[in-house]
Design goal:
mainly alpha, disordered C terminus
């Protein structure tokens, strides 16, 4: 019996959702015996004007983008099951990679509560600065005043706890503590395949080319038709389409990014990884089969026998 490869790609993504839902539904956060819980014992030592529970906030913060991540992943699966959506899968895959980077970076294991709080506050400062730029015109509005107040509270607490505050007062760019948040492409390289650092940025740039409507992105979907065109101007008749194989190759960064993020989330939260490992193996094997990729070409980070 012929296998519907589109349906198989979608089904494999459903297994990641099921593995997450089972653990999240049972706890809605990290377990009492977990790295996150252990870090939270230092909350009182890092409390300040940025909040009374900054360590807990830093450990809980990844959940919101992870939920958004699954909203996009579910939509990607729906596109695979639908008769349309030729190019949108690539745009969704790029968005999934973008969304995953923040929680993946914040959930790095064994960095300690102080570094996790620093990363979390830098992400907050970035978000607050972008929120302020939603309004234009007057320098003082309710939104901008609120943002300025929140930033001031974060920087005050940061100094009190010995963090170095940099780039304060820049009109367009956010301040940050210690070192800046690494670039999207550098984090994508580490997240997808650190031993093959070009792979993550390649997935991201391929999706970006489609999302931005760039010619080299759109032309990936062209297939020439044997129809009359206008040879005087060099016109050619084409159709826009894609195959499961091409889609699995170009969009493979999306499931890899979700797996990488979930591996860190489950470890930090102390969740059992049995179902996640089963789902991971299924996703890798399915996408590898559809894409026609040899097993040795899969980053070792994501092979079924690897450990988070």
């Amino acid at each position: 019996m012929r296998v519907d490869q589109w349906a198989e790609l979608a089904r494999s993504l459903d297994t990641l959702r099921a593995a997450f839902d089972d653990s999240y539904g049972a706890s809605h956060g990290f377990l009492p015996v977990s790295p996150a819980s252990e870090e939270c014992e230092q909350d009182a030592a890092l409390a300040g004007t940025w909040g009374t529970n900054p360590v807990r906030d830093a450990n809980m913060a990844p959940l919101s983008p992870v939920l958004v991540l699954f909203d996009h992943l579910d939509t990607l699966a729906s596109v695979f099951r639908s008769p349309g959506g030729v190019t949108v899968s690539h745009t969704l895959a790029r968005a999934i990679l973008d969304i995953a980077i923040g929680p993946w970076y914040l959930l790095e294991p064994d960095i300690g509560e102080r570094e996790r709080v620093r990363r979390y506050m830098n992400l907050r400062l970035q978000s607050l600065k972008e929120q302020a730029q939603l309004e234009t015109g007057s320098e003082s509005t309710a939104l901008r005043d609120h943002v300025a107040d929140r930033i001031a509270h974060i920087l005050k607490a940061a100094r009190a706890h010995g963090y170095e505050v940099r780039r304060e007062g820049d009109r367009y760019r956010p301040p940050y503590l210690g070192t800046q948040i690494p670039s999207t492409t550098s984090l994508a390289a580490e997240m997808i395949a650190p031993q093959e650092p070009t792979l993550g940025p390649l997935f991201w740039r391929t999706g970006s080319a489609v999302a931005h409507g760039q010619q080299h992105g759109i032309s990936m979907f062209f297939e020439r038709l044997d129809l009359q065109a206008n040879p005087a101007h060099g016109d050619a008749a084409v159709t826009i389409q894609t195959s499961p194989k091409d889609t699995a190759l170009r969009c493979g960064g999306a499931p890899l990014a979700v797996i990488a993020t979930l591996q860190r989330l489950f470890t930090q939260y102390g969740w059992d990884t049995t179902k996640l490992n089963t789902a991971k193996a299924d996703v890798i094997n399915t996408w590898q089969m559809v894409a026609g990729v040899q097993k040795d070409s899969i980053p070792t980070t994501f092979r079924a026998a690897s450990t988070p």
